[in-house]
Fold this sequence. Notes:
The complex is a heterodimer of chains A (about 260) and B (about 325).
Chain A: E1 2-6, E2 9-11, E3 33-35, H1 37-53, E4 56-63, H2 67-77, E5 81-86, H3 95-106, E6 113-117, H4 128-136, E7 140-149, E8 153-159, E9 164-171, E10 174-178, H5 190-196, E11 201-205, H6 206-209, E12 217-223, E13 232-233, H7 238-251
Parallel strand pairs in A: 1-4, 1-6, 4-5, 5-11, 6-10, 7-10
Antiparallel strand pairs in A: 2-3, 7-8, 8-9
Helix pairs in contact in A: 2-5, 3-4
Chain B: E1 4-8, E2 10-11, E3 14-15, H1 17-33, E4 37-43, H2 47-56, E5 60-65, H3 74-88, E6 92-96, H4 99-111, E7 117-124, E8 128-133, E9 138-144, E10 150-154, E11 170-174, E12 186-187, E13 191-192, E14 205-209, H5 219-229, E15 232-235, H6 237-241, E16 262-266, H7 272-275, E17 283-288, H8 295-298, E18 301-304, H9 307-333
Parallel strand pairs in B: 1-4, 1-6, 4-5, 5-11, 6-10, 7-10, 14-15, 14-16, 16-17, 17-18
Antiparallel strand pairs in B: 2-3, 7-8, 8-9
Helix pairs in contact in B: 3-4, 5-9
Amino acid sequence: MKIVVAIKQVPERDARVRIDATAKWIDEDDLQFALNEPDAYALEEALLLKEKHGGEIIVVSAGPERVGTTIREALAKGADRAIHIDCDNLAERDALGVARLLAAAIKPENADLLLTGLQSDDLGQGQTGVILAELLGLPHASLILHVEKTETGFTAKRELEEGWFQTVELPSPAALTVQSSGSTPRYATLMGIKRAKSKEVRSATAADLLTEDTPVAILERVALPQKQKSTRMISGTAKEAAAALVEKLRFEARVL
Amino acid sequence: MSGVCVVMEEREGRISRISWEAAAAGRWLGALMNLPVGAAVVGSHTETLAAEVAGNALGKVARVEHPLLAPYTADGFSLALEQLFRAENPDFVVFPHTYQVRDYAPALAARLGQTLIGDVIAIEDGPVFTRQLLQGRLRGQYRHSAGGPCFLSVQAGAFRAETADIGPEEIVLFTPRIDSARIRVKPGAPFRASAQGVDLASAQRIVSVGRGIKGVENLPLVQELASALGAELAASRPVCDNGWLPPDRQVGSSGHTVSPKLYLAVGISGAIQHLVGMKGSRCIVAIDKNPDAPIFEVADYGIVGDLFELVPALTEALKADSNGLGESVQTDAR
């Protein structure tokens, strides 16, 4: 079975956010980057399927040079090879533009299964996997927790709202977007890290892929959030803060 | 129709609450842009749904009806609405930002050469659409470039659902052409994973714990705080995903929506998916080490610091307080 996993490198969860001079994105200097968490779960599902059924895993990622470290991480965890779409202006494309780029790189692979995280921790649009399915003509399901191979395709456990689930059946080839819940992503082993160094990473530029990139949805400006409430911040030592909070909860908020 | 079309969703035979919020967003957008506002309902039996919409919030309603539109499939809904929008050519299409919409609207928009502007929290003159980035730590303002319908979905709780004065009702039936071979995914019946052991929705006080607790071995800390407060213990998604607490204690879009008197969040940064489940609480207290955590934006009281020091101190302070209160009650009685 041939599985393509589309992954994204995103700013680390706790990274300090500073808006850059253009006010269109954040200052990326001194920023730490990591593999997008739902994508780590998508990769884990791919690795589990490969362990059971054999086959090949190809990771695809778009972004500037720094994305290389995240690609190596995926290879160290057990992906077989990678395609890096070298692209410095990812943020200027909208979800459709990014998906077109990825689809152009993925299409020639003729994979049986396309997996990706259900959303990115940075832009959070949650659309790439679903648009990829549309562009590649694949049936899809989103918010998937677990995938099993069947004789003709796949069954997947899909999360619904408010604690409900359903099982969906899809013919092969198919595309699934994975929720971060299923099987806990593995760490790379030392052996894996060593092996990753000799695995193939093919580089393609956005120009090679000849995709349209005029955005329809344009991110014009970013800003820090406005407070929805006036928050009373309580300071002092742990003991002082705790005593002050209890007093406020009892006499001000009257919720004790 | 040029204008605004709101796609209303059904839940248990009725229009869902978040769909009324989408309708309010649609009306707001229509007023800004001076455009007529209508709606679409999709399914195999849409008569009562259409009547509910036409009678309550929106004038013109398209009943997009076909036997193959129940149960929901992304293939069926995309095909049906693609045909409706090609025929009617709306300027704006507004969806509620639900799991179902997330499953098909991006594909539908792509089919029409568009990109969905998803999870919108505000619409201003322009129109400019605001959505959250970086898990709520940043806000982005989006514009739609000219040409073709603009697709957007609105976040739960961002617009206030209310009924409006409507013009004359008009309900039209739209029958899409759907070949059963085009529906490739077979959906199973919904099921619930486990028995629901706890009733968070009716809890008066909730102590909720997040990633910051670091490991299951530290949970007794927050359990003691919860019992000192007489509160139920709840959690954000990562805690339940790791199996540290059962899934029926999860608060957020994939778990429970709660609105207790007191919601005390410990080590929860406040991702959008968590905030939509608890921001209706009367009093919100947040304890987190990161001063920039989005949870502080919705909190009434915040303490920035190490939860491993603050939580035991708070438990102690609460115990001392209830002892103190006991004495003062006695004093009053005398």
